[in-house]
Amino acid sequence: MNKNLILYAIILVFGLAAPFIFPAFKVQLSILCVLIILAVTWNIQGGEMGYNSFGNILFYGLGMYLCASVQVGMFFPLAEWTESGGEKTFVHTPLQFFQGMAVGLIVAAVVPTIVAGLIGYSILGLRGHYFAICTLGLGVAAGEISGGIEIIGAGQGFTTPPFPNVGGLEARGEFFYFCSFFALVLAFITIRAIYSTRFKLILNAIRDNEDKAEAMGIETMKYKIIGWMVSAFFCGLAGGIMGGLVGYIDSTDVAFDGREMGVFMVLMAILGGKGTLWGPIIGATVFHIFKEGFWTFFLGWQYVALGVLIVVIVIYFPEGIMGWLREKYPERFGEVIDEADRKAQVELK
Amino acid sequence: MKINKIILSFISALAILISTSVVSFAKVVGDKIVLGAAISLTGKYSSNGVHTQNGYNLAVERINSMGGVKVGGKTYKFDIIYYDDESNPKRAAQLAERLISQDGVEFMLGPYSSGLTKAIAPVTEKYGVPMVEANGASRSLFTKGYKYLFAVLAPANLYLDVAIETAVELNGGKPVRIAQAFEQDAFSQDVRLGILDAAKRTGSEIIIDDKLPKELNDMAATLVKVKQMKPDVLVVSGHTKGALTAIRQIAEMKVDVPMLAMTHCDAAKLSKQHGKNSQYALCASQWHKSLTYKDKFFGTGMKYAKDFEKKFKYDPPYQSAESSAALLVFKDAFERANSFDKKKVRDALAATNMQTFYGNIKFAEGGQNVDKPMVLFQVMCDDSGKCENKVVAPLKWASAKLIHPIPKWSER
After folding, report:
1. Which side of chain A, N or C, has fewer Cβ within a 10 Å radius?
2. What is the mean pLDDT of residues A215-243?
3. CA distance B344 to chain A (A)
4. CA separation (Å) from A180 to A45, A330, A344?
5. Which of A14, A147, A246 sits opposite B184 (nearest CB)?
């Protein structure tokens, strides 16, 4: 346990110091935090519960629009802000900006959670491919619908309030980095806490055999919905932060970006090893680094390189990085193998 | 818990990787002025992204071969760092940040499309990095009070309102009935606003007002309505795909409409791809090769078109021309500022007043070019089926007379 604490302390210190050690990479690091949040929360459904959700992007996009709308709407008429693609300009004072952001982030986290509860109640009865396809539709529909709502900018997009002129050039990057880093820490602590309870075992039971779990008296529906609500909470939060970081929200390309973010979150969890706590974190980090590298060094071929990476993952690491490590070094994962016992078993065969 | 060791070594490996990958360029390396640009090389704007990049490259080559940029008695050459923004605003904002804070770029060229420019402008503004952009026409870009954004093109709402006015004029001054379909993106929606204004001004009625999806491959639903309701003008805007889809389906469904006004005809190479089917389409353009502007680097528009064609094997659309013009503006501003100080260059840019082969360039307070009107051309075909874009408005540059109304499909 002590060793664990040391590890977490080191990571925490590293996370807090990162924007000062790598000042030029603040934006990438912020995005990395957001990616990790998305991967870790996707893992609750896809990894632990065995429900491949493509719909988590819905909560991310919802959070993004909500946070920006609240931030603007608290102080200025939102309809005028977005009218004609945002022709009129209102300027937030620093206090207004941060107040708006704080309230906006709370709304961005809470509302998607409620939405997840409602939607979950109606569609979590679907299983397997049916659930996956249904959630895929959710994200696409949300993108198209939001592209038609005038008050949030419709097809023109929504320019989020510019960062106020305080604290010099670096302030904006640092602010959003710490926002995303703290959201990540919060997500990690919450999910770790959840995973140490019976809740995780129930999720695993649902994954392994839902009918049996039900037969044993577990109210699977309740746990499925709660699981999804937890994911939605953090996806919404991540979306809210990302909206402020990017500065411009577009319905299908930034907010309900199922084609990229929606797929990446699945990919990252699988790359790292779904169904583990650290897998999605490692997966997201590796993925982000590879992606940035490909986009720099293989310009024009980046998608080919990414495709090759995915193929390699699927063929050689079907269980992800953590799964592969676990197979290779089981003893490091606390799995004790008694050599004599193993031999005895082999001989029996 | 040996797993800790794995995670720890992983983190340290990550730290080493990041710290070794910090490569910093200066804005001016040796005799090179390094400009940064995020361009859509993949994704839905990839064809226009390439037009933009070709325009930039041609101008860089030309300026460098004709003596480069003289600042402080020394000659410098242009160089551009490109990244692919995947036609995605999120990516574009991230790349702008990266160009400025990691690559140390201090002068930027714009991306393709209004949406991406909207995403990049806050970043360049924050760092006080002057950006000359050639492909972000949305009106809202110029009302935000950006000080470091300069656009060599006319705002999007001016693209097609001339077409409406022309239609009204040809209708004997009486209001017309307009059908319109626009892609759901910043640029097309701005063109729509321009049409709404023009309709209001002329008292015209909008009878169909459709939104088209971003992945634009089908607009049959709109065209069915057009067939039924018989408007006087059909306006379509949706970048290259919008132009191609509209022409393809109008020909397939034999939709008769007296006037068809569009954007991006030249970028979509309509006259080449669809030949006679694209005949009579009226197109808004920032530039046409037959215009009579001149400069010492490219000569006239005709000469530019020839040089461009020689290098890239296709006729330059206006997206390329305006992109080339952006470099000319930068060169001019550097030389007048006689410095690489961002603030000084910005002030020099603001004071720009020059003629290029692409048109006159003079920036208003908001950064938009106010000295260059839009032109309208019409696709015209001869009997052998060879089609060409001919300027029909404004009259000053018109090389042909507008054909109106468009003959019915049954009579073609």
Report:
1. C
2. 95
3. 19
4. 22, 33, 52
5. A147
